[in-house]
Amino acid sequence: MNSVEGLLAASVVSIQNSCFVYPACQNCLSRLILDSRRFNCLKCGCTGEAKSARYRYRLSLKIADTNDLFDITVFGSCLDPFFGVTAENLQRHIQDFNQLSGETNAEAFTGALVQAVETCFIGKRFIFGL
What we know:
Layout: E1 7-15, E2 21-24, E3 32-34, E4 38-41, E5 47-49, E6 54-64, E7 69-75, H1 80-83, H2 87-101, H3 103-121, E8 125-129
Antiparallel strand pairs: 1-6, 1-8, 2-6, 3-4, 4-5, 6-7
Helix pairs in contact: 2-3
């Protein structure tokens, strides 16, 4: 969906999940199925090596305007300025941290990332293109 049908000024009430990046098909932007060596897109049939999978931002939010609550999802590079890196680079940092720290500290990193995203977004007002 590239065309904007309307704009909504609303405040972020909560972050709906802690997974902010996903492996995305470069043809149709759908979530890829990854195994240790390969990826597969169930929507368009694209396949390739897992190490060459590209990542994309996906931020699910609960927002409120003056009258209503909405569940929305913001996708793509419009989130780069908020995270300070591309989704590809964020995923690389997460993988590097997990490899260096081991499984026990991976949850601590995820918790810190979620807390940073909550601090950046919750209570802030944005204009969303719908």
